[in-house]
Specification:
It is built from 3 helices and 11 strands, in the order αβββαββββββββα. It has helices spanning 9-20, 73-76, 163-170, and strands at 45-47, 55-59, 66-68, 82-84, 89-92, 106-108, 113-117, 128-130, 135-139, 149-151, 156-158. The N and C termini lie far apart (52 Å).
């Protein structure tokens, strides 16, 4: 694997994500250059207007991406507000490190092959969470009841809907 020579941890994490894919030669990702000082001009990447250099959005829907989500991605993209990797062929668990994205407002991962349980450790305080059409399993966590727009259909969850969801609907 080629090693990045950038001093920017966001560049290094995104390049490592690209290199971890089984088809990283996707046309869109060919513009992701490991030696770039910033990823802000890369296809599918947007940066915040506030500082102009921090990644605020990763949008790579329907890119035929094959692979899993590396935990390190969520340790360096600390100002991420939106992540859209829907309509791809991503699999494996959704890393627990995603909880480090304290500014996240939208997580859109529908139509992939993510599997395993959803096990948040605290209330999930994002506006939109779309994990529909995956292979997620286990019981629904009551900690997801605070999400404004929650899409979990077409997975393999089991058990009853937690009372917290019903209370939110009736509030």
């Amino acid at each position: 694997a080629t090693h990045s020579s950038s001093n920017n941890p966001e560049v290094n994490s995104l390049i490592a994500f690209k290199q971890g894919l089984s088809n990283p030669v996707s046309q869109l990702l060919s513009g992701w250059i490991p030696t770039d000082p910033s990823p802000c001009h890369w296809p599918g990447i947007n940066c915040s207007a506030a500082d102009g250099s921090s990644v605020s959005s990763v949008s790579l829907p329907n890119m035929e991406l094959h692979g899993s989500l590396p935990p390190h991605l969520f340790l360096t993209l600390t100002n991420l507000r939106s992540l859209d990797l829907s309509l791809n062929s991503l699999w494996g668990p959704i890393p627990s490190q995603i909880r480090n994205l304290v500014h996240l407002e939208q997580l859109t991962l529908h139509h992939n092959r993510f599997s395993g349980p959803l096990s948040p450790t605290s209330l999930v305080l994002i506006d939109t969470l779309d994990l529909s059409f995956n292979e997620l399993s286990g019981h629904l966590s009551p900690l997801l009841s605070t999400v404004n727009n929650l899409y979990l259909g077409n997975n393999m969850f089991e058990g009853d809907v937690p009372q917290e969801f019903i209370d939110e609907l009736l509030a």
